[in-house]
Amino acid sequence: MDEKTGPVHKSDEEWRSALGREEFAVLRQGATERPWSGEYVSTTATGVYRCRACGAELFRSAEKFESHCGWPSFFDPAESEAVTLHEDRSLGMVRTEVRCARCESHLGHVFYGEGYDTPTDARYCINSIALTLEADDSVQ
């Protein structure tokens, strides 16, 4: 990986100064924002969703769908290497955590087999606060 896309390693202190309090709680401590509170839950703008912590491309608007769960949902990441998946046994459940492959920030969780009419039958349930949207202004 080159310098622009290579791994990002920072101390907790560096992350705290780079991120807001809520951003740090979600991205670095694995918290979850309240449902329906995020800025991208209902967004239909065309563009690229990037990691708020490091700017890596994670998802594209073409893979976003309305799941009515309270968080932005995508059926596939932008690239297969954009995210990493990890077993999460917190809160008395077994789930699959989704992290940014570049900076290892917590993004949300992925769920399979829920019956959504998508090409992958997967729902990447992602915290809005973990993302920034780079809107494609060329699309009207």
UniProtKB/TrEMBL annotation:
<dbReference type="GO" id="GO:0005737">
    <property type="term" value="C:cytoplasm"/>
</dbReference>
<dbReference type="GO" id="GO:0046872">
    <property type="term" value="F:metal ion binding"/>
</dbReference>
<dbReference type="GO" id="GO:0033743">
    <property type="term" value="F:peptide-methionine (R)-S-oxide reductase activity"/>
</dbReference>
<dbReference type="GO" id="GO:0030091">
    <property type="term" value="P:protein repair"/>
</dbReference>
<keyword id="KW-0479">Metal-binding</keyword>
<keyword id="KW-0862">Zinc</keyword>
<dbReference type="Pfam" id="PF01641">
    <property type="entry name" value="SelR"/>
</dbReference>
<dbReference type="GO" id="GO:0006979">
    <property type="term" value="P:response to oxidative stress"/>
</dbReference>
<feature type="domain" description="MsrB">
    <location>
        <begin position="12"/>
        <end position="136"/>
    </location>
</feature>
<dbReference type="InterPro" id="IPR028427">
    <property type="entry name" value="Met_Sox_Rdtase_MsrB"/>
</dbReference>
<dbReference type="InterPro" id="IPR011057">
    <property type="entry name" value="Mss4-like_sf"/>
</dbReference>
<protein>
    <recommendedName>
        <fullName>peptide-methionine (R)-S-oxide reductase</fullName>
        <ecNumber>1.8.4.12</ecNumber>
    </recommendedName>
</protein>
<dbReference type="InterPro" id="IPR002579">
    <property type="entry name" value="Met_Sox_Rdtase_MsrB_dom"/>
</dbReference>
<keyword id="KW-0560">Oxidoreductase</keyword>
